[in-house]
User: What shape does this take?
Amino acid sequence: MIGWTEFVAAFVVFLLSHAIPARPAVRAKLVQALGETGFLIAYSAESLIVLTWLIIATGRAPFVELWPFEPWQMWAPNLALPLACQFAAFGVGAANPLSFGGDPNKRFDPEQPGIVGLVRHPLLWAIGLWAAAHVVPNGDLAHVLLFGFFALIALAGMAIIDSRKRRRMGADAWNALAARTSFWPFAALVSGRFRPRSWRISLTRLAIGLAAWLVLLLLHPLVIGVSPLP
Assistant: This one.
């Protein structure tokens, strides 16, 4: 398959590969057959394979310029990615009952919510920042559709999770947990709703976020074929 046919096919397969296993009945049957760990491994591997195909198909799609490339545009991902990597590093396994990616066994303190006080959906914001920043230097139709889709999905996902959690917990319980958090990064901190008693920062998580950013920076020209530096 060449041109837009492969791009559309990859997009459709990507959507279906995420939508179908997420259906409760399908997921239950897969977990029963593979076990929870087996399901997560298979789902992660399948997602990575399909995402790789989608990225390759995007690069092979016909080039339709929406705006010309300028070197300054490279600053958008270079400024956004260090923050996105830190959001992901601090968000994975954190005590966070208000979003996904956290550890449900960790106690969440709504008075001192940690990373959740800075951003309620750290992992989705990491994805959203990565995607939105990459739209800027990639002004052709296929890449705008790809990165724009991920950015919109991240934003929509946050709103959907907030609505779903509020409905399941009840408005009063959700409001109590979310009182010192914010949808937009740092909004609760700036408004004064979140005031940390101390700024104890996990050096391990900080190092993981920094390492992830450096790995992405170094591997970008090898994997993508383009230097990410301005």
Q: What stands out?
A: The chain has a mean pLDDT of 91. The CA atoms of residues 51 and 136 lie 21 Å apart.
